[in-house]
Amino acid sequence: MSLYKQLLIGICLFAIVVFCGNFYVALESSREQYHNQLGAHAQDTATALGVSLTANIDDPTMTDLLVSSIFDSGYFYRIRVVSLKTQKVLTERHGKPQDAGLPGWFVRMVNLNPGKGEAIVMRGWTQYARVEVVSHPMFALQRLWESMVNSFFWFAGCSLLCVIGATVFLRRRLRPLNYIVKQATAISHREFLSLPTLPKTPELRRVVEATNMMVMQLKALFSEQAQRTETLRQEAYHDSLTGLNNRRAFDIHLQARLSDEDKSTGHLLLVRVQDLMGLNQRMGGGKTDELLKAVAGMLGETQKRFFPTDGFLARIRGGEFALVGQEILPQEMENLVSQLGTQLKALYETGISDVSPVAHLAQVTFQSGDASQAVLRQADQSLAEAETRMRFFANPVVAQVTDVDGDRHSWFARLTAVLDAESFELFSQPVFECNNQRVVLHHKILARIKTAEGETLPASRFMPWIHRLALGQRMDQVMLKQTLREMDRTDGVLSLSICGESVADDESLEALLLPLKQTPTLAARLTLELDENELPDAERMSEVVRRLKMVGCRLGIQHFGGQFHLIGNLPQWGLAWIKVDGSYVRNIDTEEDKRLFIEAIYWATRQIDLPLIAERVETAGELAILERIGLYGAMGRYFADASTLRG
């Protein structure tokens, strides 16, 4: 029972007790007084009537008239005149006064006795008759009833005012307690809030100060853990000079990319600065470092332009850089090479380098299943050929892969037909509890499309074209509608990936939320997921999570690990979970640095009770390490391959 209800009941009970006590005391003190008044009233009436009858006692008609006039003028139960000699009743009037509407229980409770009075009627010097008057207590009962009713309304009004006043008072005074509840709820949702204005009440002030201190300590502890983990990641996978990923991070990414069958054909671009040792001797270490930073900046711009969603840039050794990205059209590759050539030429012309060409570039195309060493060897050979022939760009014949499906118009026609018909093939992959593979946490929805020949194409074949043709937002809306239709026919909790375009602005977000608003019961069983590389800014992210929670849906992050600085914003977002990218999970049982990195992420997210799920678990050894660390969930081919949603 709430404090307000207890207060209401308490005040009402107190008012009732006070009212009853007050009425009892008033009744007991008034009973004798009213009894005496009734007796005096009866006696006065008897005396007056006796005096009046003295002169008319021998006239029966006058006697009756006098008795009747007095009986009709007051509250009397009985008036009679009795002969003293014969004890015969000479005249009598009796009856009850008109009912005043008093409840019977009240009359019985008061139990007020009637007053009695007697007087002697003289005939000369002889006592002739006796006048007996019995007054009725109706007048006194009516006065007591009115007093009780007035007292009741008075106490009821005072009680109501007390309840309203106490409610307002407590609501204002106990407002900090409501905020403390909000703080505790926010902590359970992985948010840290503090009450800036302290209450004036000393007891509540101490409670709020202690709660604020606890929240600040938890926030500081989480920030410290996040900073420690970020430092670990920087040391393990970061190049301190250029700010790019290092060779270790590149190897992890390339191996994961080549082993992921859901990824499409990709490109590896290898850039090597010419005569780095000679530059260092001729121009000094400072100038050489400036050159490497400039090349890193150019490659970073190239990545953002040509590989915005799936690019990976690293400095793998000395003056050698590697850029990994999804497949692009030949014309786009020509533009990429032309842009880099122009920018590198500008470095020579501005004097940052004294050799021309400043660097050599090699490009090779790889497919899922290729060996990483073979791809690197092919790129090295192409780069060596370019250096030997003093050419800027080397593009071996084996890298020229012709895809008959790569025609822009044919892909646009194929994808728009699927979108118009809302005919994506929905597959799902289960996500299990890490320490109990019999418990399914949810199913991840995967998209496939069917060709006219009946071939089922994985997302890796058409997703690059979805992004290239700017169809991502429309695909999210279609996939969401299809998923909700399937959820209406099945049970279970599902997760669905969406692209950053769908939450980038209010209009796009509202279009995404519309089907969720229409099916709130289904929305409660669905969690949307954003790729780490497509997250909006922190403020926008908070707004997206808030809007999704309003319709009952949640948001998670997938493929996490490359941008660990985002972990500082996790407490304020209140996410459903984080899924660690499979590149950090692959071979975790044999590579110590990956285990340390996953442990660091786990301890950082554990501080805010944020579930951590591992992607692409493929061996029992990997799962054993994840279980030992304590991850919440895991998914991958070790458990099950993707299957049709209804299957």
UniProtKB/TrEMBL annotation:
Domain of life: Bacteria
Location of the HAMP domain: 171-223
Sequence ranges assigned to domain GGDEF in this UniProt record: 264-395
TM spans (from-to): 7-27, 152-170
Domain called EAL: residue spans: 408-647
SUPFAM superfamilies in the record: EAL domain-like, Nucleotide cyclase
GO MF entry, a single one: cyclic-guanylate-specific phosphodiesterase activity
Any one GO cellular component localisation term in the record: membrane
Pfam families, per database record: EAL, GGDEF, LapD_MoxY_N
Listed GO biological process terms: signal transduction
Keyword terms, alphabetized: Membrane, Transmembrane, Transmembrane helix
Signal peptide interval: none
Official protein name in the record: EAL domain-containing protein
